[in-house]
Amino acid sequence: MIELAEETAHDWWEVEALYDLCFAPGRTALSSYRLRDGVDPVAKLCFTARDNDGILAGVIRNWPVHVGDRLAILLGPVAVHPTRQGEGVGGILMRKVLNRAHDLGWSRVMLVGDYPYYKRFGFFPLKGVLMPPPTNPDRVLGYDLAPGAWVGVHGDVTQAPDCNPGGRPHLNDHGPEHADAQSR
Ligand SMILES: CC(C)(COP(=O)(O)OP(=O)(O)OC[C@H]1O[C@@H](n2cnc3c(N)ncnc32)[C@H](O)[C@@H]1OP(=O)(O)O)[C@@H](O)C(=O)NCCC(=O)NCCS
After folding, report:
1. In this structure, what CATH number is given to the domain that contains residue 20?
2. pLDDT value, residue 146
3. What's the gap in Å between 55 CA and the centre of ligand 1?
4. Which residue, 45, 102, 173, 176, is the most exposed by fewest CB within 10 angstroms?
């Protein structure tokens, strides 16, 4: 049994460790991280997936971005512990985020990833949506939360301002001793 919960400040470093395990610590050199630098994740779209014993099985975080002058969710990173992969945890996290983002009124989602995995959720290749280099354009994928949400949306993907109502979310308050060590 897997239980999803919104990520809290208490989870932060455990989540970071799982990302390091799944992607290797060099993950923050990826171009998508330049869109996350200094921007808070959307707190209501960040989830942990834990098993009955409270062991962290998977995680997902999401950031706001601009595509041209339009707002979108940059989905991910999503990661599932190597011992729990293939059990559906990734799918549970993906569907939770897509449903929650729809309920929160977001229109469109994008990500950089493997089309063979993400097409099962309804993602499709985006044309003319330009991630910071180096990014393989074939890996830039989109998802409509509203009909036709990606029609006519193209241009550079750039940072968007904080989208959390009320300012910085508690998610990002990990304590002063770690304030300079965050690697998002
Ligand atoms: C990708 C990831 C999140 C999937 O999570 P998961 O819980 O293992 O996925 P699910 O159990 O929901 O789905 C498993 C299915 O996805 C497929 N799959 C997993 N990764 C895939 C990939 N990169 N490309 C194509 N298919 C993939 C599996 O073969 C399996 O297929 P099946 O249903 O036909 O048997 C997980 O494998 C992971 O953390 N990988 C390392 C980090 C990573 O690559 N994250 C994604 C960044 S783009």
Report:
1. 3.40.630.30
2. 97
3. 19
4. 176
* Rounded Cα gap, residues 184 and 39, in angstroms: 9
The count of structural domains within the chain is 1
23 CA distance to ligand 1 middle (Å) = 13
> How confident is the model at residue 73, as a pLDDT?
98
Ligand 1: residue of 47, 62, 80, 92 to mutate (most ligand atoms within 8 A of CB) is 80
Cα–Cα distance between 108 and 90 in angstroms, integer? 20
> For 32-47, how does the pLDDT look when each residue is reduced to its tens digit (9 = 90+)?
999 999 999 999 999 9
What residues make up the domain containing 21?
3-182
State yes or no: pLDDT of 159 exceeds 90. yes
Distance CA 179, CA 184 (A): 12
